[in-house]
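DM from R.C. (forwarded with permission)

"hey, sorry to bug you on a friday — could you get me a structure for this? deadline for the figure draft is monday and I only need the backbone to look sensible"
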Amino acid sequence: MRTRKQRHLDTLAEYVRGLYREPKLRQLFLELTLRCNEHCFHCGSSCGGPQGEELSLAEYQRILREVREDFDIRTLQLCITGGEPLLRPDFFEIMAFARKLGYHWGMTSNGTLITREVAHRLAECGMGTISISIDGLPETHDRLRGFPGGYALAMEGIQNLIGERAFHHVQVTTVVNHGNIGELDALFEIMCGLDIDSWRVINLEPIGRALLRPELMCTSEDYRRLFRFIREKRMQGFPVEYGCSHYLGPQLEREVRNWYWLCNAGIYTASIMANGDIGACLDIERRPETIQGNIRRDRFRDVWEQRFSLFRRDLAADSEFCRGCAHLEHCRGDAHHSWDYDRNRPMLCFRDTLF
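My reply, with the result:
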């Protein structure tokens, strides 16, 4: 007899097949800039400086108007990211315009630039949610992010956001690697002392600059330790959760996050990159087949409706690595951001590690 989880996963698999036919845009990421004041070793998009001509204020205003014309923005979340979005001189002009049009929006930031004044201006612009990165205790955080003093500034930024008392959700995100996993318990004590709404704990991914540091990739025991930690803290009632990154197997699904795994790329989620390229998840390797168009020559709606076929199928459909796997129906090849498009197989698979 199939368990309740297995029945739920079966239902989700059928639902995903429907999404392949009729995708529903729920999250639109805007990568406002690739400039950043930090130099994180694990950055998926290798941020740190401009790469190509960034979209202008006028172009963002046009995009936001067109998306509002073409989609029901009441069910759409704008997700603002970078680089560090606050490095754009016209950041507040862009976001004030988005608010004027009626968008709901949130942001990912390293937190180092969020003074009390900036927190207040974010509230005035209608920001609802924000996630700030804390990747270890002070020395570890600063070393991993290549920015001395970054931990102190980020923690100050978090307190400034909390003090504003205007946001629906203030989150901290921590990227766990082989070098900092030993600090999880100490970080937990710090998070307990913050009035945050959730703590998102994710593993280092084999993407971007992290590929240059293989010694920091999590081991099998690191992964098991990570998920034991998250499950234990959740059972204690603390709002910690694993991200949306991977299929975790029937034992851990719904144990370390509130939902069953689903790669949203191209079915719920799309992105507009700093240079205008249109893609799915921003963590996906940027190569000709993953770039679906460019906002300077294409209307976003047309790209969303007529392209994205790469993302609207099971990755594992023709993968030799995945063939015959008992979990194929529910995993579907796992996530697009960690798929090896050259070898046609996942770069990270939890089979034999977690299940």
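R.C.: lifesaver. Residues 4-21 form the longest helix (18 residues).
me: no worries. The CA atoms of residues 110 and 340 lie 28 Å apart.
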